[in-house]
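JOB MANIFEST
job_type = single_chain_structure
chain_count = 1
residues = 180
[input]
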Amino acid sequence: MSLRLIGAVAAGVLAAGAAVAPVRAAPVAEEPTGRVCLEDVKYLVRAHRGNLAELAAGAAVLPRSKDRRVHHLAGMLIVDHTRAEVRVVAAARRHDVTLPPKPTRQQRADLAAVTALAGPEFDLAWLKLQEKAHEQTLDFIDREVADGCAADVRALAAATEKTVEAHLEATRDALAAIGD
């Protein structure tokens, strides 16, 4: 899949997420597995916001970077976070959890600061932002797996962990290649 096509998919997911996320969706046929608790709600909201932030970050690379490693990682993030977002939204619907329409103010500010840069400075700052975001994501995945109540939400978090670890490893590899 070309980066242009991946960027178009990300833009569509971002637009769709912004359009439907704040609205409570009708329940889907699949039933929740266990009663949802505060930790489950926090996980779904954080995962959703993280997916939206990663889609925006991936799309930001396309016009700003010429580094093939950064482009490759951005493409991976867009594809994987698009898939993850579909699963998070489905779980939120099953549990009647309302998702926010956009990333947090801090996530948006962090990306804005990075996108103000150009060239190798952009690449380095973008990779460091990805490293930080994926470390934080692993922390809240661990909390959900340990403390979540709904089995399907815990399973979603556990299933996501390997992908996030792969993103973090790819980010660190790119940082090492660029010369952190």
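[summary]
Confidence is low (pLDDT under 50) at residues 1-7, 13-29.
Residues 5 and 75 are 10 Å apart (CA to CA).
exit_status = 0
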